[in-house]
Specification:
Layout lengths: L17 E6 L2 E7 L5 E8 L4 E10 L4 E7 L4 E10 L2 E10 L11 E2 L7 E8 L4 E7 L2 E8 L1 E5 L3 E5 L4 E4 L12 E2 L2 E4 L5 E2 L15
Antiparallel strand pairs: 1-2, 2-3, 3-4, 5-6, 6-7, 7-8, 9-10, 9-15, 10-11, 11-12, 11-13, 14-16, 16-17
């Protein structure tokens, strides 16, 4: 094991001021630079053991519940909560890391309603990426269409209950090799079930909102 300092992550307002993900032989660290609205991303190449700055000038105003993932299509996705006209919205920004030169997208507001939308998260499998969030006692999601900026209509995944937990999911099952998520919804009943994984089977959008 080796210990190397790569940067300072300021944690005055954030319980966990950084997020870590890995994709295509690169390790990424999203971190808070000022515990306010300034963020950066460090990238570590696992082939050449070199650290570099992917982006050291990310500005996200009024961000809460921020999470970060690089999906299996090599898109960097940052999801967070932010207030617009006194309504808390679920928001996504993304960037195509397949291109040598690319920019972060504009804010993609997922919820677009008058009801507070909380805890946005990203879940992906082999080819598809889904963005989830909570509204009152329900959980909704949108499926990405080729890129995270092009999203399906809003679909209800399930209703919340006392047995539903938000948690990190780590698996060594071969069937989960391509599964990645910022967190999943876990139904802690007599027959435990990862509710989030149901969205891979629910691709008929006839029930879209």
């Amino acid at each position: 094991w080796k210990s190397t300092k790569i940067t300072d992550a300021i944690s005055k307002n954030y319980l966990i001021p950084y997020s870590i993900d890995i994709n295509k032989n690169n390790l990424y660290v999203l971190y808070s630079k000022d515990s306010d609205k300034s963020f950066g991303i460090k990238r570590f190449n696992l082939d050449f053991y070199i650290w570099s700055d992917l982006d050291d000038d990310i500005v996200i105003d009024d961000a809460h519940n921020i999470s970060f993932i690089v999906d299996n299509n090599n898109f960097a996705c940052i999801s967070f909560n932010s207030s617009f006209d006194r309504v808390v919205q679920a928001v996504l920004i993304c960037r195509d890391l397949n291109k040598k030169v690319s920019q972060w997208s504009n804010y993609v507001i997922l919820s677009q309603g008058t009801i507070h939308a909380l805890y946005p998260s990203v879940y992906c499998d082999d080819t598809e990426t889904f963005i989830l969030w909570e509204e009152e006692n329900k959980i909704f999601y949108k499926k990405s269409e080729f890129t995270p900026e092009k999203l399906s209509d809003k679909v209800q995944l399930c209703e919340k209950n006392s047995s539903l937990l938000r948690c990190k999911y780590l698996s060594n099952f071969r069937s989960d090799k391509a599964v990645k998520s910022t967190f999943v919804y876990f139904d802690n009943t007599k027959i435990p079930e990862i509710i989030t994984k149901k969205i891979s089977l629910k691709i008929d959008f006839t029930d879209a909102y």
